[in-house]
Amino acid sequence: MTPHPSCAPAVQVTHETEQPFPGASDDEVTCVASAPPSPTRLQGNCAETEGGGCRGSSRKLRARRGGRSRPKSELALSKQRRSRRKKANDRERNRMHNLNSALDALRGVLPTFPDDAKLTKIETLRFAHNYIWALTQTLRIADHSLYGLESLAPPCEELASPDGGSPGDWGSLYSPVSQAGSLSPAASLEERPGLQAPASPACLHPGALAFSDFL
DNA sequence: TAGGCCATCTGGTCCT
DNA sequence: AGGACCAGATGGCCTA
């Protein structure tokens, strides 16, 4: 969608982040309202003729036939529509900000090298998936050692990956996510200079889980 | 300049 | 009725 020329996106974000749910005035003409609809939204005339799309048509008809709701002028309906849309946009923006905050928190507990390297969203999720699995395996191996079952512990190459992938295939550890997309963390991190994927946890010495072990 | 990533808007759907 | 969630579209920014 094309933002209104007079609306700098960054300014808009800042303003509306501070006021997640601003009381949208009916007189307020927002950039959203003035922006042209994207081609995919031009499904017939439904979306343009009534707030909320085609489903609102029945409500409108009911009102005209003497329903409970008071008939509103087109202008009033248009204003109400814009107001609702603006509030919905604010909520959606806020929701995505919360999601990104959670993602940042997740990044904060994941080991990366260099430390300030920022993982993308998909990398963060896949890396976290792998990291949790790595820690789980490490704990399992540690348990074996603790009870003197070290000799019974399967060798590195016998430990199955979370998805049952081929043993020792670190890249497959990121499945099922990696199966859906071409960008497995191992692969993607290898593609990105400076970022390195963790080594196979199955080969970590029990109890010696250190950051360096994942490099 | 192409491609990747991201933020944002938007309409649809489901739920309370 | 209104909010949450979702997916598609779009444009900006950045990097190779």
From TrEMBL:
Gene3D superfamilies hit by this protein: Helix-loop-helix DNA-binding domain (4.10.280.10)
Molecular function terms from GO: chromatin DNA binding; DNA-binding transcription activator activity, RNA polymerase II-specific; DNA-binding transcription repressor activity, RNA polymerase II-specific; E-box binding; protein dimerization activity
Extent of Basic residues compositional bias: 57-70, 79-88
Pfam families per the UniProt record, alphabetical: HLH (PF00010)
GO BP term, pick one: enteroendocrine cell differentiation
Domain BHLH: 83-135
Alphabetical UniProt keywords: Activator, Developmental protein, Differentiation, DNA-binding, Neurogenesis, Nucleus, Transcription, Transcription regulation
UniProt signal peptide: none
Cited PANTHER family: BASIC HELIX-LOOP-HELIX PROTEIN NEUROGENIN-RELATED (PTHR19290), NEUROGENIN-3 (PTHR19290:SF94)
Stated name of the protein: Neurogenin-3
Gene: NEUROG3
